[in-house]
Amino acid sequence: MAVLSAITHAKDRSIDAILKTLADALHELEDEEDFHVFAELTELGLGATRAAKTWSKLMSVDLSFYRSRTSQRLRAEGRAEGRAEGRVEGRTEGLFEGRVEGRVEGRVEEVIDKTLRLLEARGIDIPDSAREHMQTCTDLDVLDRWFDRAISAADIHEVLAE
């Protein structure tokens, strides 16, 4: 009856006191299952009222104890929705990171290719070991420095000098 009274008086000025009394009474129940059933019925009955927020604060316990089909369904829906949102966010983040990574890799390859082409056009001998060293570098700052040096260097050692 107390649960029905709380639901019926959800918009009364005295609802906070009614809910406090109900919460205290429920905590005195010996059967935990009864506690959860009545607490959940109260929550559902209060709907989207201010009283529902008060009830939520009074019942701030681990809601995983609610075992009704409705609670289980709502938790399952919430988990599914969370997973779906996580997948979307993960895909979006992955696509963005993949694009950035792809652009960086493309820029690295471009600078290596242009540096080697410039050196070849200038007639600078590029031993296989130096070519391999340049082609395995992924640091754009180093590659840009090598390109700048390749413009005026007399040999490959000047280009690759630390």
Automatic annotation (TrEMBL):
The organism's place on the tree of life at top rank: Bacteria
Record's protein name: DUF4351 domain-containing protein
The species this protein was found in: Nocardia flavorosea
